[in-house]
């Protein structure tokens, strides 16, 4: 869930704490994989919300979005030109050709995970498929740059370079963030920046890296 961080202190996580976060993340991967099998034209976004909540709770975890800052559902479902934070509804249905962003989070044994994936309903237009693939490549580039000794600006610069290479706009108001016992912790992790600047990354820091591109200007 791309929002600015809610806490001011950057915390270093111990290996056993990171292991809990990895497990929470593995629950979300299973949910997203299930979406990949189940998504079809005609489904309501509320159906997706129910499926996600059932799977999360069956794994002894809690949906972290539900009630967070007043959010009324367990997942965000953003369709086409919606960037983030789309609210599931029984009156909103998926259609052939839709591009669907699914953003989910959970808490397992007190530790958060936050994950998103973009799907298409049917075969997407070539330029849309290119956008999806480039954004995934930007995520990989950002993750590769998030290593001890680098700086946060290196992460943003790696993501921004992919956007510029393809001529995409960056959705600047929404950023990645630290994560741990709270969903949004410091620091903010922008999808743009200058290499060699910003906070130095240390082992044990945990980030949700969330590149968001669009077909147009920033």
Overall description:
The protein has helices at about 15-40, 45-60, 125-145, 150-165; strands spanning about 60-65, 75-80, 100-110, 110-120, 170, 175-180, 185-190, 205-210, 215. The protein contains four helices and nine strands, in the order ααββββααβββββ. The radius of gyration is 17 Å and the shape is globular. The protein has about 220 residues and is an alpha+beta fold. The strands form three sheets. Strands 1, 2, 3 and 4 form a four-stranded antiparallel β-sheet that branches. Strand 3 and strand 4 (about 110-120) form a beta hairpin. The two termini are about 20 Å apart. The chain has two domains: about 10-125, Creatinase/methionine aminopeptidase superfamily (Creatine Amidinohydrolase), CATH 3.90.230.10; about 125-218, Alpha-Beta Complex (Creatine Amidinohydrolase), CATH 3.90.230. The mean pLDDT is about 95.
Number of strands: 9
Total count of helical runs of at least 4 residues: 4
The CATH superfamily of the largest domain is: Creatinase/methionine aminopeptidase superfamily
- Radius of gyration based on Cα positions: 17 Å
Tell me the name of the CATH class of the largest domain.
Alpha Beta
% residues in beta strands = 15-25%
Q: End-to-end span in angstroms? A: 19 Å
Query: Sheet with the most strands?
Result: 4 strands, antiparallel
CATH architecture of the largest domain: Alpha-Beta Complex
- What share of residues is helical? 25-40%
The fold-level CATH name of the largest domain is Creatine Amidinohydrolase
Q: Any idea how many domains?
A: 2
Coarse structural class: alpha+beta
Order of SSEs: HHEEEEHHEEEEE
Q: What's the mean pLDDT score?
A: 95
């Amino acid at each position: 869930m791309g929002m600015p961080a809610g806490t001011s202190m950057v915390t270093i996580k111990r290996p056993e704490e990171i292991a809990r976060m990895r497990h929470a993340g593995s629950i979300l991967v299973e949910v997203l994989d299930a979406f990949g099998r189940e998504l079809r034209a005609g489904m309501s976004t509320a159906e997706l919300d129910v499926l996600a909540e059932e799977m999360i709770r069956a794994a002894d975890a809690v949906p972290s979005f539900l009630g967070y800052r007043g959010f009324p559902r367990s997942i965000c479902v953003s369709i086409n030109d919606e960037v983030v934070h789309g609210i599931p509804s029984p009156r909103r249905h998926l259609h052939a050709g839709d591009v669907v962003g699914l953003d989910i989070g959970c808490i397992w044994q007190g530790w958060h995970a936050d994950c998103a994936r973009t799907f298409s309903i049917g075969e997407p237009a070539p330029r849309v498929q290119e956008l999806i693939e480039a954004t995934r490549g930007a995520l990989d580039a950002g993750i590769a740059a998030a290593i001890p000794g680098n700086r946060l600006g290196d992460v943003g610069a790696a993501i921004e370079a992919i956007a510029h290479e393809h001529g995409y706009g960056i959705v600047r108001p929404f950023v990645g963030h630290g994560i741990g016992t709270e969903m949004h912790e410091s620091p903010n992790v922008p999808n743009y920046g200058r290499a060699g600047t910003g906070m130095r990354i240390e082992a044990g820091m945990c980030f949700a890296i969330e590149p968001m591109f669009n077909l147009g200007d920033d």
